[in-house]
Amino acid sequence: MKRIAYLGLFFLMAANVQAAEYNASLFGCKSDGVTNNTSSIQYAIDFISGKGGGTLHFYVGRYLTGSFELKSNVTIELHEGAVILASPNVYDYLNYSGSRALIYANGQSNIKIQGKGVIQGQVPLFTANMENLTSKGIVRKDSQHLLPDLIRIENSEQVTVDGIMLLNGLENVQSYIGCRQLSLSNQIIKSNAYGSSTGIFLSACSAVELRSLYVDASGKPLREEGKNEIRLQENCVTPNGKKL
Amino acid sequence: MNKLFLVIFLVVSQWCRAQEFQAGDFGILADGQTLNTRSIQAAIDHIHEKGGGKLVFSAGNYVTGTIYLKSNVTLHLEEGASLLGSNNPFDYVKDPYVNWQSMIFAIKQRHIGITGKGTINGRGFQTAVNAVQNVHRGIVEDELKLDRVREWNRPENIYFRECEDVTIQDITLRDPGSWNQTYDQCVNLLVERIKVDSKSYWNNDGIDIVDCRNVVIRDSYFDAADDAICFKSHDANAFCDSILVENCVARSSASALKFGTVSRGGFKNFVVRNLTVYDTYRSAITFAAVDGGFVENILVDGVRSINTGNVIFLRIGDRWSQGKKPYMKNITIKNVYAEVPLDKPDAGYNYEGPIEDLPRNISPASIVGLPEYKIENVRLENIELVYPGGGNPLYAHRGTDPSELDSIPEMADKYPEFSQFKELPAWGFYIRHAKNIDFKNVTFKAARKDYRPAIVTDDLTGGTWTGVRFEEPQSDEKKQYIFHNSQNINVD
């Protein structure tokens, strides 16, 4: 009897741990490349995180969005052909602790972005909009801090970005600050539309693993600040065949 | 006697005049709000029973769900008149005979048409989004493959099946929830001076001709999210036959001129003349025989393909053949100028084609059969292909060693696409499992040096190559063609 109770308990726990799967369309996300999906995506992430975690699936299509925040135990799965398309409007980006990003997280654990899909900036459009705002004196000239990263994760652990193609970032395609157990793998990064674009920015990260990255960026493929512990770097190259 | 002549004269003149009926007379409202489905159907039925004629829509916006066109009735949309699709998915019928949804159906009717400079606008994006929500609510069943309702559960603008003497003239077609227009097992179909402007949702094909005979498509313009001018064969016992496509312009986020994907019966006796293709994501020309069907006696003469991702993709596969043996033979493609870009050709269009099959340098044109089913007798004449070159082996690599060439998967049962093999070993042309492929006066240009040779053949038997030229910077010493397991190719 006790055994059965344990077994029952085990199954209950297993069911609880088993991640739930959610389609983006359930939350009204539209794949037309025109509809701004920010609120739907954020609601989906908060909802899934609130239910204990799970995976938000984006299938083929172009999902325009501004800033959204990742939460613990939520995986973003970008299936082949799915594009998270960064808004070209600076006001669609939130100011997170002085920095801006399309996809942001702070103080979270077990967060993942995975799949063969794409996260794409719209650099010529974005910079044209910025120039317009600066020329009218609405935004100050030294407004570099306004430039959003495609991904910026701070003070989080068990962070994985696997298989994603990252296109056309600004100053930093992706930034990781104070992260632990960070794994970046199977990425293709192409970011040459902005003057000097860094592929990966690391600051004070530990237990970092970099695997199979192809980084074609106008700036440094990898830029480090402070002390980082890169535990592993394998099969990571630039178009010239150099290591990162 | 005179009386008899008079009667005959009256009957004939009546018939020739194609009596006109005004939509407004049937209470059909042009207010852009009223759902006119029943009134339009009543008008069609009335005209049909009176022996036929034209139902004329003057300028205005006419909302409707599914209507059925009947013999001897033509819908005439005057300039400024728009038939607008209802956004309520329940306003559309899924016809039990064809198992598909459409705004305008005609099934087993004769002498019908849609004419005039007006527009049919399916407004399908919102209808498709509403259909997805109906599935999430649990009131409609659909597998939601790729997070969208299956294409047969979304309305097309036009679906005609087993009709005869069909005329489609001058109209503009926009934004259905699925394909724009299907003509399935129709005979004597004339499509001319139409415009398709349709990038609103998945599967927005420009035109789909399925197992039809005696078809002319001319002087028309297609700008579509999915394949632009598409021929299909759904029925293993039927095929597309005697078809002329001329003076057409096509833009697509898939392929411009396509045979397939569904290719059960076959395609034969085609002439395609003077085709212009631009900003197209996949291939200017795709001929696929992947479901047991055949492709035979095809002439493509005069193609200008600008900013298009791939030029020619001929493919035999074995997907849903069910024992039927596919073949592809006697194809001539001539007088082609094509420019392939480095960047995404359809960037900025709604419903861009999916970024996929990466990493991959620029893909070559290709003719790819199967070991047991070769593609035969293809003649390529007076062709200039301009590529960006610049293939980087660190990004993606496929060498020309026999073992590497043999490692390219056959992918017989996969969806056929020029990119499906990922990296291919040539920058200009790749030929596998083929017989008698002739090149005459074909020029390959690469803007930058590529690590690959221009042409690789694998299991090619027979071919006469004359006037094949290569231009690639810093490649004087490079061998531009590699013949692997190939024989009887005469190069001069």
UniProtKB/TrEMBL annotation, chain A:
Record has Transmembrane as a keyword: no
Alphabetized Pfam families for the sequence: Glyco_hydro_28
SUPFAM superfamilies, sorted: Pectin lyase-like
Signal peptide start-end: 1-19
Keywords associated with the record: Glycosidase, Hydrolase, Signal
Keyword Signal applies: yes
Taxonomic superkingdom: Bacteria
Family statement: Belongs to the glycosyl hydrolase 28 family.
Name used for this protein in its record: Uncharacterized protein
UniProt source species: Parapedobacter defluvii
From TrEMBL, chain B:
Stated family: Belongs to the glycosyl hydrolase 28 family.
SUPFAM superfamilies with a match to the protein in the record: Pectin lyase-like
Entry keywords, A to Z: Glycosidase, Hydrolase
Superkingdom per UniProt: Bacteria
InterPro entries: GH28_Enzymes, Glyco_hydro_28, PbH1, Pectin_lyas_fold, Pectin_lyase_fold/virulence
Gene3D superfamilies, alphabetized: Single-stranded right-handed beta-helix, Pectin lyase-like (2.160.20.10)
Species in which this protein is naturally found: Parapedobacter defluvii
Protein name per UniProt: Exo-poly-alpha-D-galacturonosidase
